[in-house]
Structure formats: structure tokens, C-alpha cells
Amino acid sequence: MLKLPKVISVVCGVIFMLAACKSNSGNRARQQVPITDSITETPAVTEGPVKPATYKVFIENSGSMNGYVNVNSAFKNAVMGYITDLKTKDVAGQLNIYYINKQVCPQKENALPDEIKNFFQNLNPVSFNNSGCGTSTSYIPEIIRHVVDSIKTDVNILISDFIFSDADGTSPAYLEAAQHTLKLYLAEALKSQDFATVIVKLHSNFDGKYYIESKRPAVVDFTGRPISRPYYMVIFGKPERLRPMLDKIDFTQYNGYENACYLFPPGKQKINAKIVLNDKIGNFKVAFPATNLVVNHASTGKDRNDDSDKFQFSLAANLGYLKTDKQYLLDVSQYQVPDNYRLVSVKETGPLAGPGLEGYTHLFTLQTTALQPNQEVYIRLKPKLPDWVAASSTNDDSRPADSLQQRQTFGFAYLIKGMAGAYTNHYADAAQFALQVKVSKDEAGKSNSRGGFPWWIVGAIVLVLGGIFIMKRR
């Protein structure tokens, strides 16, 4: 027969084992619920290892591009640096180089390192002319359509000055039509596949003829007295195909980098977020784990007999994937929240954010004076083009030597608005990202809340010990 102390020890061990099994089982059940990053409850997909994509680089070789390749330019150095990084950082499984204007002319298929080096060493107006493509004027929306239509599982890159030009007439008359045409082309392409668009602006010394589009056929020859001109890399690919590049490539390191704009299909990026106790007003318990975004037992200060009728909580989110303008993310007016809530602040966490915020880039604080018994509290970032797009565009390029016009591209905003419009129309009412938090005055989360103690275990121990004591007395 077992002695009483040994019986107690065995019984306690069994009870705690059962408690641990129940707790672990609960955690596993919660972990199997997909974290959502869209108000439409689209499950975030965890991507496995992805085979490196084929990267196809299309360099526009119209006559307006000659000035970028006439000398040892920042253009050639930056583009070669980018293509080199795609290979050396194992981003591209295969790399193909093409010229493009009214047609596509292959230059290097599955280019090897020496072939890439030789290509850029010999990149000049002569090689443009000898490409077999000619250097005729090209219609940018048609070029973009061709590049987008051949994405499939590849990543396609178009490098161009993106000047909308039409030899048949004065270009300003065609700008709005070009915008609508491009919107139509991209919207049609989005019907058959989800793809993202990354627009990178750079600038380079320009040594050649500049064709004044707003005063056609006027031209200014800057040969031998170079000016600075912007150009762009526009990258198309499925989000999961672009992710390795965005993780490994830092565009800011390339000579002449200025800005970037990112157009992603909504709900395709997993957002890591969790409830934190920073700046809280009132009282609440965070349902475990905090990444489930559930707040239980929420109460205002008035519920605790003080003067405050406010309830406030914060959540940390990792927006590292959301490559966009810094000030745009910090502007509370760019977000949508429920009518009874206001977004108090959006802050960058920074390297000294403190324990618990490592791996999270932004801290959101929300407040209400009308706390509901149960509510789905959402945060949505409204789509918006960064301000640099409009600042980089002009309808009057008649003074190309002017310091401001050297940073502007004729008709550029029309083209980018056309691209953005395709995403806005195709993904109607979509946000750049969305998070939602369950806030309840009771137990909406149906899970253990942080700070709660499993008193049922103590009760079970007391009952068992009482039964043993009675049996021993008998």
C-alpha cells in the first residue's frame, strides 16, 4: 500500500500533468487558427522555400535613352550593380537581358557573370542602334503591357526614362489617354493573375539629345555638357516571387537612388502584430498569445470609480514588408478606424523600443470613449501614391537645363496614376493593410488571459487530499 505522502505526490503530479496537457492543447488549437491581415478574413499563407525566379530585364533603347549610355554614367553603374546583386545574392535563378521599344530584341539569355560585365562595358548608342530593334519612338503603355503579359512565374524589370512620347502629335494631348490605356491594360492583366509592381526612381548624368515633348519637335543637345536626368526601374512579379529580392536588395545603395513606390495586391502579406501594454488607459487582459489580437475584460476608468471615461490600448506591428513613404505610415489621417475609436498615434518602435517590441516596426495606439460590450476594432491603411510621384512629373519640359526640370519626367504622374488606378479598381475598397482586434468586456477570446491563475488546479488538489484524508480516517 502506498503511504500518504507518496499518494499525495503521485496525485499532484497527475493533476499538474493534466493541467499542462490542457494548457498545451489550448495553445496548439489557437496556433492553428490562421493569422489574418485583411478585414475580409483572408488567411495569411506561410510560404515555403521558393525556387529562385527567372529575371527578365528589358532596357528601353529608344532615341531618348541614348544620353544615359553615351558615357560612363551613373545609369550604367547602378543598373549593372543591381543586376550583379540579383545573381550574386542568389535572387535570380536565371537572368535574361533584352532591348525593347516597338519590339523585343534578346541580348543575353541566361547571362553569365562575364557576359553581364561585357554587356555593360559595350552599352552605348552604337549597341542600341545595332540591336536589331532600331531606336524608334515607343509608346510606353504598349511596352508595359508587353512586359506585364510575360510575367507568369518570372520577375520582369523594365528600365526606361518613362517619357510618354508620340511622334504623331503634341504629347500633352495624349497624356490622359495614356493614363486610361495603361489602367485598362494592367486591370486586364490583374484579372488573370495577382502581381505586384515596384517603381524605383533614380537619376544619372545625361550626355546627349533631349527631345522636348511639350514643344515637339524641339530638341536640345547636351552632348559634352551633361545634365542630370531621372530614369526608372519598374519591376513586376508575383508577391511571393518578389519577396526574396525585397529582402536581399537595398535600392538605396545604388548610385542615383531617389525614391520607390510599391503596389501590392491586398491581403497577400502576412503581418505580425500583437497587443502590448504601452500607454494603456482603463483596464483589460490580453488573451494569450498576444498575437491573437484579443482583448478581454476591457473597462474604462469610470468602471473603476475614477473620472476617466476613456479606454485605450496599443498594438505593435511589423510593417517591414510594406515598402512605402515613411511619413505616409506615420500620418494618422491615412488610416481608417471604427467611428467610436480614434487613432491617437502611430510611432516607429526604433532600436531602443524596449523589451517585447523587438521585431516590430510600428506602435499603434487607439482610444474610445464609447466602449462596446463586444467589437471588432480594425485599422486600415488607405491606398495613396507617395508625394514624390507628383513632384517628379511635369507637363512642361521646355527648360530641360532648369534645376527643377532636371528632376522631373514629362507625363510621369499620368502613367503611375494609370498603374495605381488598375489596382484600386481591381481590388475595390482594399486597404494597403488591415488589422483587427477583438475587444470585449467579458471573455470574447475564450482563452487564458495574461495574469490569470488556474485556481481550478488548487481546488482539485484540495478535493483529492480531502478524500484521501477521509479514507485514512476510516
UniProtKB/TrEMBL annotation:
Signal recorded as keyword: yes
Give the UniProt keywords, A-Z. Membrane, Signal, Transmembrane, Transmembrane helix
Point out the signal peptide segment.
1-19
Entries under PROSITE patterns matching the protein: PROKAR_LIPOPROTEIN
From the record, give the transmembrane residue ranges.
Answer: 453-471
Official protein name in the record: VWA domain-containing protein
Q: Which organism encodes this protein? A: Chitinophaga qingshengii
